[in-house]
């Protein structure tokens, strides 16, 4: 019985610590105080940077998943990165891009 309690406590601790394995999310805001001042070139440039970052985050997520398999096999659940930081950042960038698209349409930017 004590063994079961000890294993349960260890498992709970391991799950709590697993959230520490990732990095803090850097969520971009959908709106910026400077939106009205941005030119078409600025809007398109920011959108392009965001698209590149989304691709990087997708690769980061795939790498984290592969690392999780190796870490689980080597150490159990203690060092797994189970958070959704990359997903939340990519979703925020997609929302920002939607806002940039709205601004480009409102300014009648080419290629929108």
The major sheet is characterized as: none
What oligomeric state best describes the polypeptide chains here?
single chain
User: Would you list the SSEs in sequence order as H and E?
Assistant: HHH
Count the domains.
Answer: 1
Distance between the ends: 66 Å
Gyration radius from CA atoms, angstroms: 20 Å
Output the number of helix runs: 3
State the low-pLDDT regions, or none: none
Helix-and-strand structural type = mainly alpha
Summarize model confidence as the mean pLDDT: 78
Helical content band? 55-70%
Describe the global form. elongated
> Proportion of β residues?
under 5%
Structure summary, number of beta strands: 0
Question: Would you give an account of this structure?
Answer:
The protein is mainly alpha-helical. The protein has one domain (2-23, 31-106). 67% of the residues lie in helices and 0% in strands. It has helices at residues 2-18, 40-75, 85-106. Helix 2 (40-75) runs antiparallel to helix 3. The longest helix is centred in the middle third of the chain and has 36 residues, at 40-75. It is elongated, with a radius of gyration of 20 Å. The protein starts with a helix and ends in a 6-residue tail after the last helix.
